[in-house]
């Protein structure tokens, strides 16, 4: 499959692959959902050779494990499953034990960590040792959705491949091709929330964010002195939204605020920027903190409603 925006990363990668000395660590940076994972797998196969399909014994992928035995059983049955919040130090240590043996089919081995910015602190420190003294023939492909969350010492040891955002019109084409029955309102909400990520847009469509999008825009435009819109927002979120839906709501709120920044007058910009920053903090905390879903949606709603109150013209 051809991914939009991958031409330049492939050009850089293949130029390095045919060069005199291939760097041992690469950092694939860009928004979640722009295709960094598929790129890493395809690039790894080019590096190690061997079979073009199926699992490769010399490509080791570290990602989130199932949350517990019950979720592991779901994974084994091919069902959706809940994962742990972080890539653990035990996973890194198990990978490092593999590195004491020779590759199975050739002279090269590739370690993919997806996403590397979700490693535990101890896991990051342990990985750093392997990056500093990599075994001969071992290469690392680290996928990062938020590159700033990685240790500076890890970033400094990697060549960075940056994956660009995709234009809204291109994402719209993808949604219409992949999900032709989706209504325009939901499609527009998904494109706004995805902020340049086709994969995120496809995920958001499945979460039914159209109503949330409308309510958030109303909060930013008009405020919510009587708490009615915030009540509707909580109802639209659902009584027990899972973590994916919570994260999607934060990203959608960020997109709504960012769009308002492009459409409003200068005096309102500081308040919008402050709200956007607070939503960014929430988006970083939400994957690892145990937020109460009801309180989280009210926090989002109140941030947006405060903007609407400030933007409403004075009367009298």
Protein described:
InterPro entries: DNA_Rep/Repair_Clamp_Loader, P-loop_NTPase. The protein is elongated, with a radius of gyration of 22 Å. The C terminus is likely disordered. The chain is of the alpha/beta class. It has a five-stranded parallel sheet, sandwiched between helices. Helix 10 runs antiparallel to helix 11, helix 12 runs antiparallel to helix 13 and helix 12 runs parallel beside helix 14.
Which class best fits the helix and strand makeup?
alpha/beta
Strand order in the largest sheet: 2-3-4-1-5
Which range best describes the helical content: under 10%, 10-25%, 25-40%, 40-55%, 55-70% or over 70%? 40-55%
What shape does the CA trace take?
elongated
Please report the first level of CATH classification, the CATH class of the largest domain: Alpha Beta
Q: For the record, what is the CATH homologous superfamily label of the largest domain?
A: P-loop containing nucleotide triphosphate hydrolases
Low-confidence stretches: 311-316
Which CATH architecture of the largest domain is right? Answer: 3-Layer(aba) Sandwich
Strand % is 5-15%
Please count the beta strands (DSSP E, at least 2 residues each): 5
The average pLDDT value, as a whole number, equals 88
Radius of gyration over C-alpha positions, nearest whole angstrom: 22 Å
Number of domains: 2
Instruction: Characterize the biggest β-sheet.
Output: 5 strands, parallel
Question: Helix tally?
Answer: 14
Measured between the Cα atoms of the first and last residue, the distance is: 60 Å
CATH topology of the largest domain: Rossmann fold
Strand/helix succession: HEHEHHEHEHEHHHHHHHH
């Amino acid at each position: 499959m051809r991914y939009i925006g991958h031409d330049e990363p492939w050009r850089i990668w293949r130029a390095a692959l045919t060069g005199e000395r291939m760097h041992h660590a690469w950092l694939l940076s860009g928004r979640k959902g722009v295709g960094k994972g598929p790129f890493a797998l395809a690039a790894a196969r080019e590096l190690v050779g061997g079979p073009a399909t199926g699992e490769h014994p010399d490509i080791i992928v570290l990602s989130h494990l199932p949350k517990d035995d019950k979720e592991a059983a779901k994974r084994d049955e091919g069902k959706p499953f809940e994962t742990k919040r972080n890539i653990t130090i035990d996973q890194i240590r198990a990978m490092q034990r593999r590195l004491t043996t020779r590759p199975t089919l050739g002279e090269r081995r590739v370690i993919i960590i997806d996403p590397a910015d979700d490693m535990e602190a101890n896991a990051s420190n342990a990985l750093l040792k392997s990056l500093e003294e990599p075994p001969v023939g071992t290469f690392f492909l680290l996928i990062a959705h938020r590159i700033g969350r990685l240790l500076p010492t890890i970033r400094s040891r990697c060549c960075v491949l940056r994956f660009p955002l995709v234009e809204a019109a291109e994402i719209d084409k993808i949604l219409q091709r992949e999900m032709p029955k989706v209504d325009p309102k939901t499609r527009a909400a998904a494109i706004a929330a995805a902020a340049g990520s086709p994969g995120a847009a496809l995920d958001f469509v499945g979460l039914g964010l159209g109503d949330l999008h409308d309510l958030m825009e109303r909060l930013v435009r008009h405020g919510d002195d009587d708490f009615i819109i915030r009540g509707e927002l909580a109802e639209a979120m659902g009584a027990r939204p899972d973590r994916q839906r919570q994260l999607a709501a934060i990203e959608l709120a960020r997109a709504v605020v960012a769009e308002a920044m492009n459409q409003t007058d200068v005096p309102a910009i500081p308040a919008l920027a402050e709200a956007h920053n607070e939503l960014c903090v929430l988006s970083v905390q939400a994957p690892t903190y145990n937020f109460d879903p009801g309180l989280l949606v009210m926090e989002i709603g109140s941030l947006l409603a405060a903007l609407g109150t400030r933007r409403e013209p004075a009367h009298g």
